[in-house]
Design a protein that fits this description.
With 333 residues, this protein is an alpha/beta fold. It is 30% helix and 20% strand. It starts with 5 loop residues before the first helix and ends in a 7-residue tail after the last helix.
Length: 333
Amino acid sequence: MATLNTLQYANDRVSGLSREFAWQQGCGEAWKHELRARLSECIGLPKQMGTSLDIEVIERRSMDGYDRETITFVSQPGMRVFAYVLTPHGITGLNPAVVCVPGHGPGVDVLVGELPHDYQNQFALQCVGAGFVVVAIEQASFGRRMTPGSEDRGSSCMRDSMAALMLGETMIGWRAFDAMRALDLLRTRPEVDPERIAVLGISGGGLTSFWAACLDERFAAAVVSGYFNTFFDSILSIEHCVDNFAPGLAKVVEMPDMAALIAPRKLFVESGTEDPIFPAHAFLRACGTARAIYADAGVPASFASEHFPGEHVFWGRKAIPHLAEWFGIKTTS
């Protein structure tokens, strides 16, 4: 029946779609290769991976238990990224590393204790405290990368995402590419093991982390907090920032099926039982699909999840220890 409700009209169409890529047992490397190419096209992923990083060091400081460098680097031509590099004191040889990506909020400063504690629970400091080398990046449209004139809104996500769409690209593509370039940066560091680099984030940073790990096989692991769900039950059912969207994505794949692009590499997902924007029932269903994917890949232990009691926050109580164990960091209890 025809409706006056525009969103209902769209959701009715989405619910009846047969997606171009629906995971099923036995989907192999050719399927993954085709899906990566299709998603890269869908989000307008930049292709200039060979651009010089042109790293600029702004400051070096010795902190409590780690050294901190404040830097900027070039992601794609004309775009520079602000970041912190945290290196634990006393490490030797080649060490595991993490790209830390903040979600919606005041920016990367909150991850390293330069701004008051918020829902993200300073997870960059948690990671360096666990023994990881960390690069914590400022996401486009937040903090030092906010478009001037947007201060009253706390970010320039809407304005900048629309600009990306006018270029035939998306904020998903820009931010995932930034994370991929942060991986490039870590691989230049002599203290980092290039085979043990993860990406970790919450909310909008969880989006970036998930997509970056799906599209770039050099990430050995991903930790996705407050994002892993289904597009239909989260992005399409609740009003979300426009930076979550990409043209035609609903016709291509559902989010849980994308986990096949990470398998057999490590994946940890977490979500709060009371998260109001990424519903619990859909998180659990998405985890069921991911478990089937990892079982089919023969590596069921490479997927783990936690449905913790709480709302939309970074929890990390199992996620960071899992990542440390996966990467061979010895922890003390």
